[in-house]
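Could you join me in thinking about how sequence relates to backbone shape in a protein? To get us started, please write out a protein record for me. Would you write everything just below, so we can both look at the same thing?
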Amino acid sequence: MVKKIEKGGELLWLLGVIFVALGVAICSKADLGVSMIAAPAFIVNEYVSEFFPQSTVGMMEYLIQGLMLVLLCILVRKFTWKYLMSFAVAVIYGYTLDLFLLILNRVSAGSLLSQWILLLIGDAVTAFGVACFFRTYLPLQVYELFVAELSSCKKLDIIRTKRWFDITLLLVSVALALVLFGDVRNISLTNSFHSLGPGTIVTTIINSILIRYSGKFIDRFFGSGHAFPSLYEALKR
């Protein structure tokens, strides 16, 4: 039996950043549509980059997460300094995503089967990263913070809250693509429509399931302890 890493809270946070960014980058290479979470940043960046070439997906990520942080404060009617730390995590994630997109720049799928394989791999990697985030005391990305804080304040099941959050972002992404581009004639079942596609729908359906099972896998190898007690106490106040 494999011995658990009892003090893995900080490591899980690092794995969360890396795996979520890597998973999103892999999904984008499938060209079947990225996840509903990542889609707004890809869509807005595609539009903004026509006027501001220096724009990146990672940059749009932390700007959008900043707006979501404002919305969270309105919904839960509170603000703490920890929320600002989540925005800092969003910035770190944005740069990490841009790095993986650069590394995978030349990767492409040669067939429809390869596209779906890439997408499912990306979905699994992303779900693993999200499950890691849910098991650390360190600041979450705003996406995960939004789900965790809203479910806690409103006494909601976190997995169900995550599912409705995903569906809402899917609808927002579709609206953005139609409003900003409107070229509906380019919609295809074998390629993405401004980072949306059949893969986006599949991801929306299976995302919460993958997160649940990823969490069970993580719990087999990681305990709930932490390596830096003083930091833990400071963040839990």
User: Anything to note?
Assistant: The chain has nine helices and no strands. The radius of gyration is 18 Å. Residues 40 and 172 are 8 Å apart (CA to CA). The mean pLDDT is 87.
